[in-house]
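Title: Comparing notes on inverse folding

I've been comparing how different people in this forum approach sequence design from structure. To keep things fair, I'm posting one structure and asking everyone to reply with a full sequence. Here's the target:
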């Protein structure tokens, strides 16, 4: 069993006019990249603020590294970094100068750490360029560099991909994957756009109106909404044997009715049906099931009159 590093138990945040988070319980595993997904105003930032001690729960509790007592929570938070809302940086200063300022403020003795984090986030060659000349993607990478200074075991990032162009989205996604893979950093990341996180996360928590609607792993998510080739034949067990043995297929699922979902070789449908046929299997139904992130997202957190449907899988509660 994976170690749980963050656990929310009946976490609630009641503001005067509204409940931002409502009885939320969830657990985040060590080494995971956990996506907190929901429309704007659904409570993602408030949950992250409660993790960081920037907002106090009105009910329930949050456990960090197994600690829930206030003093021990502070120590646990020193093993984490938080990037909540747009990262702050001095516009006239360079990336290095900004990080040097942060290094001194955080009391980090190791000067070389700045070179390391600049290298890690791909800003090592920005030289004398002031932050005011940075793209949004570069600013986000600087924010991540800043968060990395203390060598955190967990990074909590609030909408770090918001507003980035497709290239910027890929850069941040690859950077976060690298940090997770090579530095073993557990990442908690929020977004209101499912497609931004769908190629990144190992686990998902869907939230709407402060309520946790669904938690699932990437594997479960993939099975529910990834593009696949859905095959039903007159002899599904034999079909599966043919697919695995003759075509070497390894990425598949078998549905309750025995039909098969293939997640690979989707562009080789003719070869697949021919091979099945030649091996005595008669296909009854062969259909490409398209990935439909938008519909999936709507099914979980949508379906309300107040919902305004924007581009892609983006939703907003704010009119
Ligand atoms: P998200 O990050 O998903 O956009 P937030 O956590 O920022 O959502 O907000 C959840 C709800 O709580 C929103 O309706 C928001 O207006 C409200 N809220 C957030 N912060 C405060 C606050 N400091 N005071 C009062 N209401 C707040």
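Reply #1:
Here's my take.
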């Amino acid at each position: 069993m994976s170690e749980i590093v963050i656990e929310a138990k009946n976490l609630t945040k009641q503001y005067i006019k509204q409940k931002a988070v409502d009885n939320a319980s969830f657990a985040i595993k060590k080494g995971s990249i956990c996506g907190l997904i929901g429309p704007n105003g659904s409570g993602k930032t408030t949950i992250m603020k409660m993790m960081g001690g920037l907002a106090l729960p009105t009910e329930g509790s949050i456990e960090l590294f197994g600690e829930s007592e206030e003093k021990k929570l502070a120590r646990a938070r020193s093993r984490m970094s938080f990037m909540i809302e747009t990262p702050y940086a001095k516009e006239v200063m360079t990336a290095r100068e900004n990080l040097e300022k942060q290094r001194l403020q955080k009391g980090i003795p190791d000067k070389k750490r700045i070179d390391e984090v600049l290298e890690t986030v791909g800003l090592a060659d920005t030289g004398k360029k002031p932050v005011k000349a940075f793209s949004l993607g570069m600013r986000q990478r600087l924010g991540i560099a800043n968060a990395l200074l203390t060598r955190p075991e967990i990074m909590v990032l609030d909408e770090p991909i918001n507003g980035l162009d497709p290239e910027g989205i890929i850069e941040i996604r690859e950077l976060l994957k690298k940090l997770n893979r090579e530095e073993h950093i557990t990442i908690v990341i929020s977004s209101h756009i499912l497609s931004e996180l769908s190629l990144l996360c190992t686990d998902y928590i869907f939230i709407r109106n402060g309520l946790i609607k669904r938690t699932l792993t990437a594997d479960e998510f993939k099975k529910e909404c990834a593009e696949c080739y859905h095959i039903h034949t007159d002899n599904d067990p034999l079909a599966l044997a043919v697919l695995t043995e003759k075509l070497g297929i390894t990425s598949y699922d078998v549905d309750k009715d025995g039909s098969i979902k293939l997640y690979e070789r989707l562009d080789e449908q003719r070869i697949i049906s021919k091979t099945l046929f030649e091996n005595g299997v008669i296909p009854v139904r062969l259909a490409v099931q398209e990935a439909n992130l938008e519909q999936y997202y709507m099914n979980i957190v949508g379906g309300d009159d107040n919902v305004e449907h924007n581009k892609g899988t983006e939703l907003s509660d704010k009119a």
